[in-house]
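Tutorial, part two.
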Amino acid sequence: MAITYNDLYLDLRQKLRFAQVEAYTLAAREIVCYAAGKTRQELQRDGRLYVPREIEQRVEQLTARHLAGEPVAYLIGEWSFYGLDLDINESVLIPRIDTEVLVEKAIEYVSQLENPRVLDLCAGSGCIGLAIARHCPNARVVLGEKDEAALRVCRQNTRRCGLTERVIPWQVDALERPSPQLGEFDCIVSNPPYIPDGEIADLDVSVRDYEPLLALRGGEDGLDFYRSITEKWRDALRVGGYLLFEVGIGQADDVLRMMRSVGFGDGTITVDTGGIARVVAGKLCDQV
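Running the prediction step on this input gives:
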């Protein structure tokens, strides 16, 4: 029996809801749009049209993969973050709404500066640095990422967002000291790997089996990258510049202490939409 796009979307939404899929409304819309090759606006426009059988079958296949654990972002190859539509694949983490708190704090600072230089360290898809560049038109941004596959995604997204004149993807290792060629920055932002190695096996299947372990493993206590960045990368930050981190649950106080021990002052901790301490920020007050 033929059904309309509206019916297909609503049926899928209900199925995902009963399966207790998080953000089931968003997932249903994105799966139907991708299977039909339609934008969100086109799906709404064509809601009363009948769906070809092959598209129904495609939706069924994608839904089965999602219910088995595969994230929607990897199914469709893109995701939205802070108003940007970005290419996403299994080489990079899927941008999450919690990270928008980090972006907001960085924009709050960077927007006050004249021609600032910003480094997004452990950039992954480039979502943080690109969002800052989009909302701070005077900023020049470097997307620093070690993994070559992730760096390719950074390049794709820089082009997709039309920001090639002000954003440069650059291969760097956050666990090593920066090259002098990078120069000095007014702001460094980072959402580094922060899952303790011993907790990886307990992660949800959608994270553990699909997202890149390289972007998750933070060492024995989850704090290896914070130690390295606060100690080794402070020299890439001008005195008076800000370092902002996203942190995992229960890590904020430890990271703030690290930063204070190497000359960062005016430390702040900001909670995310769930009330979890998510962003730690500090100003470089001196050169040790």
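The beta strands are 78-81, 84-87, 117-121, 140-145, 167-171, 185-190, 237-246, 264-271, 277-284. In part three we will examine how such features are distributed along the chain.
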